[in-house]
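Here is one record:
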Amino acid sequence: MKEYVPKRMFFTKGVGYHRNKLQSFELALRSAGVEICNLVTVSSIFPPDCTIIPKMKGVKELKLGQITYVVMARESTNEPNRLISAAIGLAQPRDKMQYGYISEHHDFGQTQKKAADFAEDLAATMLASTLGFELDPDVAWNERKKVYQVDAKNYFVSRSIAQTAEGHKDGLWTTVAAMAVFLFD
């Protein structure tokens, strides 16, 4: 049996507006550059020895109709001016041969920064628990080094991507999406 372990991944995000909810989602996928794929959502493991590549490089590799695995966060509203957000967070151990965690978060009323920070903290907390320690993101975050650090030996890097939008003023459906997109060699 063939193993399906992604070797590369990229982050993307998008927003769409339409009178139909499904079409607003389709437009968010277009905005993100992944509308040509059949997306399959998966859970939260960042594979060992997986390389993060730039969005534009990853999008260029997608094929029409390709089955594409993603960790996706999405949110929709048709309420004018209602703030919606979708975010993906990643926490990677310093040892690239270990697995990491990807989190998805979607909410109402959160700014882009708050949604991104929350998703990143969530991924960091999940990774810390598998490494056998409790993590308080407010205490462990080292702003100068831009890493979560528990002690001198235990640290990991993180990142996030978030998309926010206000509900369309005329009541059109507004959809935001953020994704970690997996690629296989």
Summary: The mean pLDDT is 90. DSSP finds four helices and eleven strands in the chain. The chain has one domain: 8-183.
